[in-house]
Amino acid sequence: MSEDEKTPARQIITDYAQAHFRYFRTIDGTVYAQRNGHPVARPIRSQGTTGSHRQELMVGLYKDGIGVFNGTALKEALDLIEALALTEDVQPTHIRVAPGFDGATWLDLGRNDGRSVRIHPTGWDILTPDPQEVCWRRTQLTGELPLPAKDTNGKGIDLLLRLCNFAGAETECLAIAWLIGCLEPSVPVPAPFLTGPQGAGKSTGGRMLVRIIEGMSGDLRRAPKDEENMITAVAAGWVTALDNLSHLPPDLSDLMCCIVTGAESIKRALFTDGDVVRSRYRRPMLLTGIDVGVIRPDLAERLLPLRLVRPRVRRTEAELWAEYAEILPVVLGSLLDLTVKVRAAQADTPTDLRMADFAHLCAQLDAATGFGSLAAYRASLDDLNDDVIEGDLLAQTVLKHAAGLDEGADVRMTSSEWLHCLTTLYSGEECRPLPKGWPTTGKVLSDRLKRLQPTLAARGVLVDWGRTSAARYIEMTRAAALALTKQETAF
Fold it and tell me: CA 407 to CA 403: how far, in whole Å?
């Protein structure tokens, strides 16, 4: 055969690839390859350590006896495949959990064979999802889960709670509600904050909760030092767990709010002048720590405090984790059984809570089991409001001012007048020096009150803004009786 009659290597690779793989693009333009009949997709440009499409293509060509090709031929073939795939329909990829057809959701078990769990209000099964329905994306953070056990009769939940040191039934039901929420890709869930005295097993309890979703390789990590590293870590896994937090700087607090409820970041694509890379993220989070200091009001509405106590009997790490690995299939099976019951339960959606989806999930859990998770969730938010107020002298001063008003009375002043009024009230007759961070202008005071507005409303003080023909004003109304704490009255 002459050289002109030989089929170019790039053509051989392209024909093989299109016969054995399905190529598609995501909404951000990234092209993925998915082996026929297999749910795991890999970006064709990836050189990742979890296995790239280039590597699986080379292995397939070699094992099928077609040959070994040089890098130039592979590059030319992949360039053509990428260009052709940009005309295909858009399909999203998912990590760990994904929405499916007919109201079902999927849980990726991280297995090489692609077997996953399909969860539906009528039951759950272990299946290999149709590639047209679910495309899994995997990273080094995607650990393997064991096959969940069937017919557990709920004993897995009891086995899990026996290993954790939760302070009471209220904390236990909130932890269960959060785990169920982690299996629903469309529901933002508050971030559990495991607190307790030193030696209460906060890190161990956090690992146990995370590994139910992420497998035995899942672990806690230190908070990244900047936003870019944090977003990278969040995008690579499903549950983001931060360990041993001692304080929450404003930037980290704001970023956590975005992660819990969802946001998008954009940065310049490498080696380009005008192209950008979009990163969308909304992930379950988990935090541990003894005390993080002052909690900002917007983050407090997105937290779920889980209190732990010191165990009476200590066990070795080896013994503890050996038992945990043994019961994990039963725990996962019981959690899936309970998730099915919860999704089938009917309950009204509470309309007065910020995280309404999670509040509705708690109501469904109560309807299915008789737990008091919704009441426990409300109580936890009240505790967090108290934490916010006790850490904010401005909030304490506003509540002290409102305590001197009749119920239903309102006061309307400009922001500068309010600043003078509250400053005078705080300083008192002894002219106490103002604390660091006290508002210095009416504009700063107005912005601080906007952030504190939900917290103050929970304590019966309504703050509103308006305008007359002369000037803007801030109105405070005492809507209910106030129960001031000792810290709020003893400046």
Answer: 9
